[in-house]
Design a protein that fits this description.
Distance between the termini: 52 Å
Helix content: 10-25%
Order of helices and strands: EEEEEEEHEHHHEEEHHHEEEEEEEEEHHH
Oligomer: single chain
Structural class: alpha+beta
Number of helices: 10
Shape: globular
Radius of gyration: 22 Å
Largest sheet: 12 strands, antiparallel
Strand content: 35-45%
Number of domains: 2
Length: 435
């Protein structure tokens, strides 16, 4: 069976032996909490497993691993006899008790690759990608929550300049979700519980965009399932069945949609052509969407598009591409957004020297840390302003909130990211001064 190629396929191997190290601390708060910290890596290559899902069995409390394979998960001490579920597309789900983890530091957990057999392929009722995607659209309202609910989330905006992490904004928030509404407009509402920001080492030329544009609102408002419903051409010859792969005990179709497209970049005269590849991971029984991957890359040269120089400079904004991931998981009989992640690389290209003076990589990640299906009541305070950047909506910094008492499951920074952000002083000092 051939693996579907995607932007992090190097992390997936034939057999994965996961080395899982962790430490726990107990906080003396109104409710004791255990903080589980771990690292998930490929034991053969020592490569970390990015976006492995770590959750408490039967509950919506969860997180994912970072670029180094590290995670932090805050759980109630009352759950010490419950189990953690560790999973990743292409591998068998592994269950392990929280108590066993606490009792056995340095425990190794082995996840084995799950492969499909010829018999499994032959019994599939449907193998036509066009009909499969039609069934996805027909079953959207059956598979996804259509009634309002609340969710807790953690958002991170991390930006690199010339290979060094240079700017960070974190947000803990509650979100009112109206449910999947395919035929009427219904917007999510966001309520900030905490926003913290680092010092910025990003070129001052880009400051207006950082201050005035709310990237969290932009990406969250682009509900990919609704866009799919209204824009997907299910008769397109570009839809191809590429693979079959497991997630937990579910067999998934892997369907690609590769096209050459034209776009417009902030100027009526600035049209560009690029290659777009969308990959859909679809349940073979329920036709629910488990994952959507989107990539854009230039057809020729280094850049997807270039804009005219900034006023008074020789520097041109030059887009190199785009990678997006949206993953969904089932909870209480319905599918919900699990996380999204966006990689956005670009350069500031010097039109005189024809070289890139500055290289940037913007990473934006949103993780749903808790689903509250029965809770439909909107908060009455701390409404996020969609038209203002999060940097202008920072709150008073409370270390206790961020470390223990908050319900967010923080995604740890990598050592390299910390080195870049703390080049002059600690993040704790930066957060305290910026808020």
């Amino acid at each position: 069976m051939n693996k579907n190629s995607n932007w992090f396929s190097g992390f997936l191997k034939a057999v994965l032996l996961i080395s899982f190290s962790y430490s726990t601390i107990l906080a003396q708060t109104s409710e004791d909490k255990i903080v589980l910290k771990g690292k998930i890596v490929d034991s053969e290559t020592r490569q970390p497993l990015l976006f492995a899902s770590v959750s408490v069995k039967g509950m919506s409390t969860s997180t994912v691993t970072n670029l180094d394979g590290n995670f932090s998960l805050y759980v109630s001490s009352e759950w010490v006899n419950d189990s953690l579920s560790i999973s990743h597309i292409g591998y068998a789900n592994h269950m392990i008790s929280i108590a066993e983890l606490v009792a056995n530091p340095g425990l190794e957990i082995k996840l084995l690759e799950t492969t499909t057999t010829l018999d499994e392929v032959q019994v599939l009722a449907e193998r036509n990608p066009n009909r499969i995607m039609k069934k996805v659209l027909e079953n959207l309202e059956k598979n996804y929550a259509t009634e309002p609910f609340m969710m807790d989330g953690f958002y991170r905006d991390l930006r690199d300049q010339n290979g060094q992490s240079s700017y960070l904004v974190d947000a803990a928030l509650e979100i009112y979700d109206p449910g999947l509404q395919l035929k009427k407009k219904a917007r999510r509402k966001y309520y900030l519980r905490g926003v913290r920001a680092s010092d910025s080492y990003i070129l001052e030329l880009l400051a207006p965009a950082n201050n005035n544009f709310n990237f969290l609102a932009r990406w969250m408002e682009q509900n990919k399932l609704i866009l799919l419903y209204h824009t997907l051409d299910t008769d397109s010859e570009s839809l191809k069945l590429q693979d079959l792969i497991y997630k937990d005990d579910r067999l998934l179709y892997v369907i690609s949609d590769k096209k050459q497209l034209e776009g417009q970049l902030n100027s009526p005269d600035n049209w560009y052509k690029f290659e777009s590849v969308k990959t859909y991971y679809v349940d073979t029984e329920t036709y629910s969407m488990h994952k959507i991957e989107i990539s854009e890359k230039p057809l020729e040269g280094k850049y997807v598009a270039q804009e005219p120089p900034f006023d008074g400079t020789l520097l041109r904004y030059s887009k190199k591409g785009l990678n997006e991931i949206y993953e969904y998981e089932r909870f209480d009989g319905k599918m919900f957004l699990r996380y999204y992640h966006v990689n956005y690389p670009f350069d500031l290209f010097n039109s005189e020297t024809e070289t890139a003076d500055y290289e940037f990589l913007e990473r934006r990640t949103f993780i749903v840390t808790n689903i509250k299906i029965a809770d439909k009541k909107k908060p009455t305070d701390a409404r996020m302003k969609r038209t203002r950047g999060l940097l202008l909506q920072t709150t008073e910094y409370d270390p206790t909130f961020w470390k223990i008492e908050n319900t967010s499951r923080l995604v740890p920074l990598t050592k390299r990211q910390l080195q870049g952000l703390e080049r002059e002083r600690s993040l704790e000092e930066q957060f305290a001064d910026k808020n």
